[in-house]
Structure to design on (305 residues):
């Protein structure tokens, strides 16, 4: 993420779409009271923005809320696309027009572009003339969303996702305040962060070089906004990262503000993966699962009575 408006660019970053967990949404009708409490806010806000009745929306599969996996963006975009199709519109609606309807993409467009196309997303940010301070999308107040993203296929590496129980969930006003506290950086740091993403992480992924990808991710953890997110988590995160690396995981990092942590492997068999997941879950009191990158993006199924 670029946090130096004096360079003429703000926001931006890199992210990866996962096969699971997924946001599954049905739109049609007769679904009243089927929304679990943790998801009521995003459903109600998106429906209000689109003029949809909440009873027309049912959630079928779930991304955990406020753990750093982008659940709000994926559910909002799913509802917005479903609403478009339900009203007889274009099921191929994508890009800024869809993002705008969902009210997403004012800060990071990684989740938006990933929803459309899957894969590894590089967000090149927005002109600093349009925005002068960092903040979560819901607080940005921007209505113009442009697509300045690049998308790449990601290798079929196995990915371990660890979500520690009991860790702070960063969202809402708390997230806004953390952005405000951590949003200042110098031009050198912003340029070095962009260099690591574009000249080290991205080429390593495209060349399927996990060793180089690991080295680049370690560099990312030690600089800029990601360093500040990691420092906010303190010693518990440091211990978890060290343990995952000791278990053979590469390129371990915190996903957004967390608490979700991810790591990659290219050579661990199924028995070993199960053993690692069990040990990590027990040692760190965490929900743990394996997945892979999703290089496809959204899936749409239209069912007619």
């Amino acid at each position: 993420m670029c946090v130096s408006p004096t360079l003429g660019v703000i926001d931006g970053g890199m992210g990866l779409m996962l096969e699971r967990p997924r946001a599954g949404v049905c739109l049609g009708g007769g679904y009243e009271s089927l929304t679990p409490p943790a998801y009521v806010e995003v459903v109600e806000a998106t429906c209000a923005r689109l003029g949809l009745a909440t009873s027309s929306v049912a959630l079928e599969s779930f991304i955990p809320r406020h753990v750093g996996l982008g659940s709000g963006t994926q559910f909002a975009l799913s509802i917005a696309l479903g609403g478009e199709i339900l009203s007889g519109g274009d099921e191929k609606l994508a890009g800024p027009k869809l993002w705008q309807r969902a009210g997403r993409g004012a800060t990071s467009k990684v989740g938006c572009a990933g929803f459309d196309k899957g894969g590894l997303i590089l967000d090149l940010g927005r002109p600093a003339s349009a925005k002068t301070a960092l903040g979560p999308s819901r607080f940005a107040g921007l209505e113009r969303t442009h697509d300045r993203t690049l998308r790449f296929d990601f290798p079929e590496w196995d990915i371990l996702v660890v979500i520690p129980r009991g860790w702070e969930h960063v969202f809402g006003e708390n997230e806004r305040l953390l952005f405000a506290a951590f949003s200042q950086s110098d031009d050198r740091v912003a340029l070095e962060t962009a260099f690591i993403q574009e000249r080290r992480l991205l080429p390593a992924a495209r060349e399927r070089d996990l060793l180089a990808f690991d080295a680049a991710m370690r560099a990312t953890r030690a600089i800029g906004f990601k360093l500040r997110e990691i420092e906010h988590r303190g010693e518990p995160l440091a211990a978890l990262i060290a343990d995952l690396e000791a278990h053979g995981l590469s390129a371990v990092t915190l996903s957004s503000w967390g608490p979700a942590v991810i790591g990659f492997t290219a050579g661990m068999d199924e028995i070993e993966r199960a053993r690692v997941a069990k040990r990590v879950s027990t040692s760190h009191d965490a929900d743990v699962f394996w997945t892979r990158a999703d290089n496809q993006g959204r899936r749409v199924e239209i069912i007619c009575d």
The chain has ten helices and eleven strands. The two ends are 46 Å apart (CA to CA). The chain has a mean pLDDT of 91. Residues 154-291 form a domain with the Alpha-Beta Plaits fold (CATH 3.30.70.890).
